Amino acid sequence: MSLRTPLGRAVGLGSAKEGVSHWWWQRVTSVVLIPLSLWFVFSLASLVGADYQTVVDWMRSPIIAALLIMFVISTFYHAQLGVQVVIEDYIHTEWLKMASSLALSFVTAFLSLVAVVLVLRVALGG
Amino acid sequence: MLTNNRPLSPHLQVYRPQLTSILSITHRGTGMFLAFSSPVLVYWLWAIAAGADTYASAQVLFGSSFGRVILFFWSYSLFYHLCNGIRHLAWDAGIGLEIATLYKSGWWVVAMSFGLTVAIWVVGYAARGGSG
Q1: Can you tell me the ipTM of this complex?
Q2: pLDDT tens digit string along A46-76?
Q3: Which of A28, A39, A102, A107 has the smallest set of CB atoms within 10 Å of its CB?
Q4: Which residue of B has its CA nearest to A122?
Q5: Does B86 lie at the interface with A, CB-CB under 8 angstroms?
C-alpha cells in the first residue's frame, strides 16, 4: 500500500529510474523510421537491376552513407525496444527473461555496429 | 507462474476475431519478423563491402524464387508495420480512438500496406528492366 498519489506515481521515474525512456525512444525511432524506411526500400527497389559499381557509387555519396547509418541505427534500436516488450510479455521465467533481454541488447548493438562499419568501409573506399 | 486464478483476457479460444485484434497481433508479428530478418540487412551491406563477386552471389540469392518470396513477405511486413505504426502514433497523440475511426483507419492500413507492396514490386521489376 503506497501512500503516494496517483499523480506522484505517474510522474515518477520508476524503480529502475528509467521513467518513460523506453516508451519515448520507441516513438522517436518510429517517427524517424517513417521517412528513412520508405527511402530505403524504394532505393533498394530502384537498385534491383544495377551493377556493382552503381551500388558502390550510390553508397559513396556522403548523404546516402549518412542516411544509411541513421537507418541502421534507428532500425536496430527500434527492433531492440520492440522485441524487449515481447520478451517481457511472453517469457515468465525470470532467469530466461533476463538472459534473453541481455542477449537481445548485445546482438542488436553488435549488428548495428557491424552495419555502420560496413557502410563506412564502402563510403570511405576501404 | 500464475499465483492466483484471476481470469485472463482475452480468452483466445472463445474470442471472436475482430479487425482490431487481428491488426494488433499482426503488428507484433510483422515487427518480430522484421527484427529477425534484420541480419539480412547486415548481410547485404557485407556483400557490397566484400566486393563485386560476393555482391553478385548475394544478387543471385535475393533473385532466386526463395529469395523473392522472403523479400515479398519482408516488404509487406515493413509496409504493414509502417502504416499501422502511424496509426499507433496517432493514438499516442489521442487521435482516432473512437470505435468507428479505429475500423476506418484499420481498413486504411490494410489497403495502404497492400498498395505500397504492389508499388515497390512494380518499381523493382521496372528497375530490373522487363524480363523477370
Answers
A1: 0.89
A2: 999 899 999 999 999 999 999 999 999 999 9
A3: A102
A4: B49
A5: yes
C-alpha cell at B23: 491488426
Query: Closest approach of chain A CAs to the CA of B34, in angstroms?
Result: 8
Round to whole Å and give the CA distance between A45 and A42.
Answer: 5
How far apart are the CA of B103 and the nearest CA of chain A, in angstroms?
22
Q: Report pLDDT digits (tens) over B2-40.
A: 567 776 666 777 778 899 999 999 999 999 999 999 999
Is A98 domain-assigned? yes
What's the CA gap between A90 and A102, in Å, rounded? 16
The tally of domains found in chain A comes to 1
In a mutational test of the A interface, the residue from B12, B30, B38 whose CB has the highest number of chain A CBs within 10 Å is: B38
B74, B29 Cβ separation under 8 angstroms: no
Residues 26-55 of A with CB under 8 A from B: 27, 30-31, 33-34, 37-38, 41-42, 44-50, 52-53, 55
Return mean pLDDT, chain B.
92
Cβ of A115 within 8 Å of Cβ of B41? The answer is yes
Q: What is the CATH number of the domain that holds A26?
A: 1.20.1300.10
A3-17, B22-36, B38-52, range with the lowest pLDDT = A3-17
Output b/e per residue, B4-33; b: 16+ Cβ within 10 A: eeeeeeeeeeeeeeeeeeebeebbeebbbb
The domain that holds B108 is classified in CATH as 1.20.1300.10
